[in-house]
Amino acid sequence: MNRPLSDALLAPGPLMLAVMIVVAALSRFLPMPPNFAPVVAVALFAGAFFAHRGLAVAVPLLVMALSDLALGLVRGGSFMEYFTSSVYAPSLLINYACMALIVVLAYGLRGRVTGGRVLGYSLAGSVVFFAVSNFAVWLTAMSVPGHAACMAGLMPCYVAAVPFFKWTVLGTLFYSALLFGGFAMLRARIPMLRAQTV
């Protein structure tokens, strides 16, 4: 795959994957429980199906960053602080790095996508995201107001985040079912999408 990213993205298969990722990201504007988001599922989906590894990492990161920025503009307040405050920036960057890591982990799904494997990777991705994102919160807690548990130590920080973890898992499972299941239906109807990666 030596084609430039822009050329590779405009091929029908990658374009279809990108559109599905954009639609999943747009659902973040709907009222949802906290942490019920497509972040982990999008990373797994991209890693499993984009043939061009650069696109597998770039598309979900770009789409999620743009949706984060749009949410910040629409919702303002603390959400926008992630982009304007040097206090929150390290945590946000670590979350994007974690997402890239999950994409790379999902390379293990290439050509081996089954319901059981998607379930396993979804659970593992949720755990990785929980562990890394809350470590980032703890790392920056000394300067972030409102994170008293994290100022007490790493374990209290993880314990305080446990109620949100169930929503991360449920959101990941929901969006994984939509993305992987939806793409399986498209592949059954469109022969050019049937390659292991597109």
Automatic annotation (TrEMBL):
Transmembrane segments: 12-30, 42-67, 87-109, 121-144, 164-186
Keyword presence, Transmembrane: yes
Signal peptide region: none
Tagged with keyword Glycoprotein: no
Keyword annotations from UniProtKB, A to Z: Membrane, Transmembrane, Transmembrane helix
InterPro entries tied to this protein: DUF6580 (IPR046487)
Name of the protein this chain belongs to: Rod shape-determining protein MreD
Organism phylogeny: Bacteria, Pseudomonadati, Pseudomonadota, Gammaproteobacteria, Lysobacterales
